Every structure is written in structure tokens, then in C-alpha cells.
Amino acid sequence: MHDLGTFRANLDAVAARLATRGLTLPLDEFRELDQRRRSAITEAEQLRAEQNGLSREVGLLRRQGANTDELQAKSRAMGDRVSELNTVVEAVDTQFREMLAGIPNIPHESVPVGRDAEDNVVVRTHGTPTPMDFEPKAHWDLGPELGILDFDRAAKITGARFAVYWGLGAKLERALINFMLDTHSREHGYTEVLPPFMVNSASLYGTGQLPKFAEDLFKLENTDYYLIPTAEVPVTNLYRDETLEGEKLPIKLCSYTPCFRSEAGSYGRDVRGIIRQHQFQKVELVKFARPEQSYEELDRLTADAEDILIRLGLPFRTMALCTGDMGFSSAKTYDIEVWLPSQKGFKEISSCSNFEAFQARRANIRFRNGKKTELAHTLNGSGLAVGRTWVAIVENYQQKDGTVVIPDALRPYLNAEVITPQAQLK
Fold first, then answer.
1. DSSP string, 51-117
2. How far apart are CA 226 and CA 228, in angstroms?
3. Any residues with CB less than 8 A from the CB of 269 and at least 6 apart, and which?
4. Residue 336 to residue 123: CA distance in whole angstroms
5. Domain residue limits, the chain
6. Tell me, what DSSP letter sits at residue 111?
7. Which CATH architecture has domain 4-100?
8. How many other CB atoms are there within 10 angstroms of residue 316's CB atom?
9. pLDDT of residue 390
10. Of 131, 266, 300, 365, which has the most beta carbons under 10 Å away?
11. Which residues contact 129 (CB under 8 A, 6 or more apart)?
12. Any bridge partners for residue 346, and if so which?
């Protein structure tokens, strides 16, 4: 969320930056509210000054033995009016904050200006797709043929956009989770944390999912609990309403969780396979940093996510998202996109973002900087989306005979080198 004072004081400049995101601020409404607030404050200050003068006059008259009832009544009326004006100011501030809660973060000056994904900028690429002398199969065909992926039974027991993994398919998912967590915790310096998979509404407000994106969430009936859409929510909120020690920053956490999303608004997109599911697994990277170090930490976090793909031998590219394609809370985002042979193109597998103080202000996450406290900067990114990594391995490492070679980095976790057709339990 934006700082209320800074927002009011720089309304035109803020509006110009947010316009690059395709957002038109209701400037007239903001200005009318601001004028009402200023008028109330000015009148209240004048009345308090008059009250102080009356108090002095009443004191003088009392010492002289004069009747002060009329002046005291006038002072009480002024006090009542000041209370009314204070209520007006509080109501306007509340209305301001409610409006601010639905306004996205201001893009960092280094973010390319653009309308949508077509205007995103390639930052770097790594690796080249392996030439195939056969027509590669999509994972939604190859997985069932190998007996490691089952959509029909998932639809029977739950519904659309769910999957059942069998045999080496399930082990591959588990191997990827362990491989990612081990790499990030042992070699990239993150502390592993396993949070609850349900959170309350205060947590979702803190990271920016509520109130604007309620339709994307699964809420448990008759409770204030929601299934998490990403580990970003519980892990960032570990420090909600806390003040961190500045010398301990950056704090680097990694977490595996399942994630649950309604995928509202994604009708018709990625309907086949496991690219866009209601339930999927993810390893998340979260950082808490000092403001002056947060963009350096964003580059490092992105490199840590990229390193997983490098170790798995998967071609990818990293994109700087333009202003019109960034997420609600982000000030700057890099998307890492992995190559998928079946689509003859790249698909997003990680978004790495710096939220600056946007989430920290909503969640009240501060750090000590000498004798004062400041809002921390929060960052996160997928390190990686496990299901999409599973897809990338199955599709990129498929062979002409229909088998899938297991990348060297995962073989110690699977105790296997090749995925061959599996016999499912009937």
C-alpha cells in the first residue's frame, strides 16, 4: 500500500507513473477528499486556538469574580465542533486508505513502459533447445502414455484442473521439491521454513491478495481461513507487526508448499495438462531487505531461481516485465520462462519481484536503523514452480522411443536414469 502522506503530496506524479500501468486515478475524487480534509483540519486548528483564548479569558474573569457561564458554553460548543471535525478527518483518512488498498504499486523507474506481455523485454537467455528428429509430444499425451500422469481419475475424485501422479511421476515431483530446497538452503544461503497451508485474511491483506483479488482464492466456509495461493503469503507474514534487527538483513527464506488458486479470469487458458491447475506445488524464495540493498537482492534472487534451471539443463530466458504486465504489488518483476517443445516457445516458470515497501506497509514489517525504525523491503520469487518444471523435464528430455531421460542432477533423488512405461495399479 502507498504512504498516505506521500500519495497526497505527490498526487500528479503518482498518477503519471500509475498511468504507465494502464491505471487512471480518480484525481478529482482524491482532490475533493483532500480539500475536505484540509478544510476540516484548518477549521479545527482555528477553533482550538479560539478555545485556548477563551480558556485564558475565563480564568481571568473567574479571578475577578465575574460570571463565565456563557463563555464556558461557547467553549464547550467549540470543543464539540472540533470533535466533529476530527471525526471528519478520520473518516476521510479511512476512505483514502480504502481507496489506496485497491491501487497497485508504483513501477520502479527502471521498468520498461508497455501495455502488455508483448512489450516485455528479454534480459538474457541461457541454453538452446535440443534438436529432435521426431515430433515431440506434449506432456498431457506423454505422461498418460508412460503411466505417470492421470487426468481422468483426478477429474473423478475432484474435478477439472487436477492431476494424479503415479510411480516415477510422483517421485519426480518429490525429487524436484527436495532438489530445489537442498540447493537453495545448502548453496544459496536460504533458511528453509515449512508454514501453515491456510492463512487468515490479515495475512492476505498484508501481501496484497485482499481485498482486490478475493475471487482468486479458496475460502474455508464459516471461517477466516483461506487456502494459500502461494507460500509468499504465510512466509512474508511471519514478520507481520514485527521490527527486525537491521544488521540481520537481508533475511532469506525458502519454502515448499502446495498452492491453491481458483484461476478466476483464466477461462480457456492452458486448459490441457498441468500448466494451470487449481492445486500445484511450488518452492518459494522470500527476502526481507534494507531499501538500499533490495534491487541488488532482486538480481541475486533471480539468479538463484535461474540456477535451478541451469543445473537441470533446461533452456530458458529471463524477461523484464513492462509496466502494463506486472503484478499488483510489484515495483519490478523478472519472469523466467522455460522452453517447452510441445508449444515451440517459452512458458513462465518463475516470477521474481521486488515489492519495495508496498507489502511491508500493509503488513507493518519494519527494521531498526540506528535509533529509528523504517519499513523493510520485501521480495519473492518461485524457485521454482514444481509442476511446470516437471513438464519441462518430461518434454525436453523425451526420447524418440517414448521414454524420458532423467537429468543428472535428479538421479540421486530418484535412483533411476530413465522413465519407461509404468504399470499402474488397477
1. HHHHHHHHHHHHHTT---HHHHHHHHHHHHHHHHHHHHHHHHHHHHHHHHTTSPPPPPTTSPP-SSG
2. 6
3. 276
4. 10
5. 4-100, 117-419
6. S
7. Orthogonal Bundle (1.10)
8. 24
9. 98
10. 365
11. 315, 339, 341, 396
12. 339
Burial class (CB in 10 A: 0-12, 13-18, 19+), 43: middle
Which three cell numbers mark 179? 532438489
Q: Which of 417, 392, 414 is nearest to 167 (CA)?
A: 414
For 117-419, CATH gives: 3.30.930.10
Beta strands in 5-120 (DSSP E): none
With cell 523425451, the residue in question is: 398
**What residues of the chain score a pLDDT lower than 50?**
426
Q: Find cell 478544510 and name the residue.
A: 39
Q: Which of 336, 334, 348 is nearest to 379 (CA)?
A: 334
Per-residue pLDDT tens over the stretch 185-222? 999 999 999 999 999 999 999 999 998 899 999 999 99
**Cell numbers placing 352:** 521474481
CB 206 within 8 A of CB 359: yes
Report the distance separating Cα 376 and Cα 357, nearest Å. 6
| pTM, 2 dp | 0.90
Smallest CA-to-CA distance from 248 within 413, 425, 367 is with 367
3-state secondary structure of 372: strand
Burial profile 58-85: b = 16 or more Cβ within 10 angstroms, e = fewer: beeeeeeeeebeebeeebeebeeebeeb
**Rounded CA separation 97/87 (Å):** 15
Distance CA 246, CA 235 (A): 19
Cα Dmax for the chain: 110
Helices (H), 287-345: 294-312
Distance of alpha carbon 421 from alpha carbon 93, whole angstroms: 63
Whole-angstrom distance, CA of residue 307 vs CA of residue 320: 18
Q: Are 388 and 349 in contact (CB under 8 A)?
A: yes
Phi then psi for residue 289, to 5 deg, are -135, 160
Q: List the grid coordinates of 312.
A: 537441470
Q: Which of 320, 350, 316, 349 is nearest to 333 (CA)?
A: 320
